[in-house]
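Long-time lurker, first post. I've been practising inverse folding by hand and with some scripts of my own, and I keep getting stuck on stretches where the structure tokens seem ambiguous. Below is the full token string for one chain I'm working on. Before anyone asks, I'm not after the true native sequence, just a reasonable design that respects the backbone. If someone could post their per-position residues I'd love to compare against what I wrote down in my notebook.
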């Protein structure tokens, strides 16, 4: 958590260098599902999915009505269990795992269109960027060849609703593709890269820079 607090001033400096724009600071809740060497879901006699809850904070700066930049820190857990696929039982030890991870992400957002929803302005967006995932394994690493720090490429999309002049709500779905086969701490027999999927619900509040205060609303960033 101390690392996160140290990064916030850096994010704020980067995102507020342009005094003609406002920034949005918010929090998010989500759920994350890892798809790697260990199975994480089953559609057998009993449906089971190992999606774990997550939470985070973010800073967004709109560039214009079509583009935005966002930096975020997100915490969740990866999990897998060979019992979801009995064929894999006995092939490795341990047979299941669950450990926490921390994701740093910087992404760009593109808004191809806007529309009205329940008398509020809403926007559809697509996103992509780069993220770094730091995993925490409390016991012995499953494979010494796997680093605890991995780079990923996230991409996805979602909707943003303008609740009030400064308050926004966001629903986003994304997939993060790793550059390694080690997000689950296990280097498999193939070179297929691990990936994980997340659904995130966020609430953000707009903050107008000091340079814009008292100069009228015409200087502020358009709401979207």
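-- Answer (accepted) --
I ran through it position by position. Result:
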């Amino acid at each position: 958590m101390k690392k996160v607090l140290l990064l916030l001033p850096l994010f704020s400096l980067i995102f507020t260098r342009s005094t003609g724009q406002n920034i949005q600071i918010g929090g998010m809740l989500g759920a994350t599902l890892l798809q790697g060497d260990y199975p994480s879901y089953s559609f057998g006699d009993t449906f089971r999915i190992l999606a774990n809850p997550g939470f985070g904070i973010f800073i967004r700066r709109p560039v214009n009505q079509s583009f935005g930049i966002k930096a975020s820190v997100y915490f969740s857990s990866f999990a897998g269990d060979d019992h979801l696929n009995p064929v894999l039982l006995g092939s490795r030890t341990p047979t299941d795992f669950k450990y926490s991870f921390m994701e740093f992400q910087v992404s760009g957002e593109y808004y191809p269109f806007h529309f009205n929803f329940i008398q509020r302005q809403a926007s559809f967006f697509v996103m992509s960027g780069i993220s770094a995932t730091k995993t925490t394994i409390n016991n012995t690493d499953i494979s010494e060849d796997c680093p605890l720090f991995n780079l990923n490429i996230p991409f996805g999309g979602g909707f943003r609703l303008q609740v009030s002049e400064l308050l926004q709500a966001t629903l986003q779905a994304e997939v993060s593709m790793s550059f390694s086969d080690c997000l689950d701490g296990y280097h498999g027999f193939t070179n297929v890269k691990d990936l994980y999927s997340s659904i995130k619900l966020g609430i953000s509040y707009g903050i107008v820079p000091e340079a814009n205060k008292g100069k009228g609303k015409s200087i502020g960033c358009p709401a979207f």
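A couple of notes from the structure itself: Confidence is low (pLDDT under 50) at residues 1-6, 16-20, 213-224. The chain has one domain: 2-219. Happy to go over any region you disagree with.
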